[in-house]
Amino acid sequence: MPQKQRTVTLIDNETGKQVELPVHVGTHGHPAIDVRSLNKALGYYTYDPGYMSTASCSSAITYIDGKKGILRYRGYPIEQLAEKSNYLEVCYLLLYGELPTPDEFETFEKSIKEHSMLHEAMRGFFGGFRHDAHPMATMVGVVGALSAFYPDSSSVHNREQRLLAAHRLIAKMPTIAAWSYKYSTGFRFIYPRNHLDYTENFLRMMFAVPTEEYEPDPLFTKALDLILILHADHEQNASTSTVRLTGSSEANPFAAISAGIASLWGPAHGGANEAAIRMLQEITESGDLQKYVDRAKDKNDRFRLMGFGHRIYKSYDPRAAIIRKTCHELLDKIDSRNTPLFETALRLEDIVAKDDYFIERNLYPNVDYYSGIILSAMGIPLSMFTVIFALARTVGWMSHWNEMWEDPESRIGRPRQLYIGEKKRDYVPPEERGA
Ligand code: SDX
């Protein structure tokens, strides 16, 4: 017996006209009212700045429950993936929808290793930037430029080409990220080595020098791999929505990912991990934590507590809980040169947790609050924090981009607006203006 289609009825109190709208019910989460017929039936648009109540698409990739602090990739709880999986296996899961068999993983890992090099002509692009350019600027430029080198993986209507583009981007992001860093230091670029696993390879390209071998510290490799897992995807966040909207015009995948990197750069989004550390450094140096808490509550002050709050998590960000625990473990095992910073982070979190202003607004630490402490404990420079977020999120972006092209309902994204500008008026000759 087919389930009866759920509907809602919208009545225009002005005209008495009404329309019955279908309701779509997903596996979990809020049902969605299908408003596609609204404009034709009643002549209205929906109005939702920031898309607080808007589902832009249907997706099977990631599920978030902001109230319960739930995050699942393809149904698997983030806590289990963080404990039992590794980043490259999570890449396979997000992209293909299932955990790989050992053979499937071996084939996937071989493909990623084979695509980790850049075309030699791309080396020159790095030299076009000032040496002190922010590595995110380099990433936006160089990733976009990949579209000039790989026309054989740019056709959005060809699944094989789409997946080849995904493999190329997952494989090349560590090389581009590490070279962006090396360029800023003036050191020689280090090439990937296929005998290393994905995260070890990235750390070696970041820190090895031609004069001596570099063995990645297993502790750091494990901590970084965890950070990559936790940042791999997060539903329709700003940068993923940017990738979907950019890609919906049939722009090639490299251009779409470059747009996603640009969106992630903002301190309200992926740039928050860098901003959170800068804030914690400033608070630690000032010795006056309460001053910053008061500023964050002051409506006349634009200052906000970086690493706190989330559009969806109105309880604890499950990723922050996992990273906080790893922070403790890692700092206990190394010479804990970041202890003052970590102490400040713990004290600030404790004060905020007891302050009604933040409790009423559901402001808790998010994924960016502690990740920076681990990265700085590993000697990764501040300017590389968001680059690492972009590296991790590339698989999420590509999984959503590919899902969009496999969704028959997908079409070019073109939101409308509520026009509040001038009514029709006639041109005024220059000599009559300002009268
Ligand atoms: C990421 O979307 C994702 O999934 C993103 C992400 C991912 O994995 O892709 O999870 C990654 O971007 C995490 C968020 C990183 N950003 C930051 O840490 C920057 C600081 N956080 C804020 O900018 C803010 O909390 C946002 C942007 C994260 C969320 O903003 P919202 O949901 O639009 O909330 P809001 O601006 O409407 O704030 C609601 C209230 C306001 O006060 P009132 O006007 O109600 O009195 O809370 C206040 C805000 O002033 N508020 C804060 C605050 N965040 C919100 N006050 C102080 N400090 C903060 N951090």
Characterise this structure.
By secondary structure, the protein is mainly α. Helices cover 50% and strands 6% of the residues. It has helices at 38-42, 78-84, 87-96, 102-114, 123-127, 135-145, 159-185, 198-207, 218-230, 238-247, 253-264, 272-286, 289-297, 318-333, 339-353, 356-360, 367-377, 385-406, and strands at 7-11, 18-24, 32-33, 62-65, 70-73, 76-77. The strands form 2 sheets. It has a 3-stranded antiparallel β-sheet with strand order 1-2-3. A hairpin with a 6-residue loop joins strand 1 and strand 2. It binds s-citryldethia Coenzyme A (SDX). S-citryldethia Coenzyme A is lined by residues 234, 237, 268-270, 272, 296, 304-311, 361, 363, 366-368.
Q: Which key phrases capture this entry?
A:
435 residues; three-stranded antiparallel beta sheet; binds s-citryldethia Coenzyme A
List the helices and strands and how they pair.
Elements: E1 7-11, E2 18-24, E3 32-33, H1 38-42, E4 62-65, E5 70-73, E6 76-77, H2 78-84, H3 87-96, H4 102-114, H5 123-127, H6 135-145, H7 159-185, H8 198-207, H9 218-230, H10 238-247, H11 253-264, H12 272-286, H13 289-297, H14 318-333, H15 339-353, H16 356-360, H17 367-377, H18 385-406
Antiparallel strand pairs: 1-2, 2-3, 4-5, 5-6
Helix pairs in contact: 3-18, 4-7, 6-7, 6-11, 7-8, 7-18, 9-14, 9-17, 9-18, 10-11, 10-18, 11-18, 12-15, 12-17, 14-17
Bound molecules: s-citryldethia Coenzyme A.
